[in-house]
Design a protein that fits this description.
By secondary structure, this protein is mainly alpha-helical. Helix content is about 75%, strand content about 0%. Helix 6 packs parallel to helix 8, helix 7 (about 90-100) packs antiparallel against helix 8 (about 105-120) and helix 8 (about 105-120) runs antiparallel to helix 9.
């Protein structure tokens, strides 16, 4: 399907006239007519405005195969995320940058690249090297992404990066934009569910909460000046909860 045919289909679906679309784009209705008859095509600079008006991506407007695109992006996100979780960062950074040349504004790819750069930045030299890129990616996600999960993850990573680099003012500013745990989806979806779905959700909640508790115990043990006997007790508690997560509540 040509871009002109796509514009016509989308315009009719919105139930607007060529004149109304032309007014929004600040062009003549004749130009719209020419597009829809495939005599001319929109200037490339107008594609983002058209896509925004119809609430689709530029790729969709151009007829790019969305299924193939999503398959590629899903594969890259899965592959690189697994590498980062294994503390491999150099290779995923390279893969993500190459994929972003093809899909430059994909928020999921940007989010994982930000994660890879943040993970690599545990090395002080890397931290200086990647500082401006981490902040730049976050700005791009905040400016263009409509995906709340991506925006939230970018905010979390930027907050951690600011903490690690001692930017107290920036840390406080971004913390004010972070949601309270009691207002998040995971804490409230329970009320919408019932039956097996509710039970399954509760198992996930228990598993997640226990994982969070093990992290808190570990962090407290590391950062506190406790006697060795109390640290041993915390270690036993940590191991017991870890066992429960893996054997009892892992879902």
């Amino acid at each position: 399907m040509s871009i002109g045919s796509t514009v016509k289909r989308l315009r009719l679906e919105k139930n607007i006239t060529q004149e109304q679309l032309a007014e929004y784009l600040s062009i003549t209705s004749r130009a719209i007519s020419q597009w829809e008859c495939d005599r001319t095509a929109p200037d490339i600079s107008m594609l983002p405005q058209l896509a925004d008006f119809f609430e689709i991506t530029v790729d969709e407007l151009l007829g790019v195969d969305e299924q193939e695109k999503n398959r590629i992006i899903n594969d890259v996100v899965s592959e690189t995320s697994a590498m980062i979780d294994r503390n491999i960062t150099e290779e995923p950074i390279k893969i993500l940058r190459e994929t972003l040349k093809r899909y430059p504004n994909n928020d999921r790819l940007l989010c994982v690249l930000m994660y890879a750069l943040y993970a690599a930045s545990e090395d002080p030299d890397f931290c200086k090297e990647h500082d401006s890129e981490i902040i730049s990616i976050a700005d791009r996600i905040f400016s263009y992404s409509k995906n709340d999960d991506c925006r939230g993850e970018a905010r979390r990573l930027l907050f951690r990066h600011y903490c690690d680099t001692g930017r107290k003012a920036e840390t406080h500013a971004i913390s004010e934009e972070m949601p309270n745990i009691e207002t998040c989806y995971e804490r409230n979806i329970y009320w919408m569910l019932d039956g097996e779905e509710r039970l399954s959700h509760l198992l996930e909640r228990i598993s997640d909460d226990l994982r969070a508790l093990t992290w808190d115990i570990w962090a407290y043990s590391v950062h506190s000046d406790l006697p060795s006997e109390e640290k041993d007790e915390l270690e036993k508690l940590f191991q017991k909860i870890e066992y429960m997560v893996k054997e009892k509540f892992s879902v």
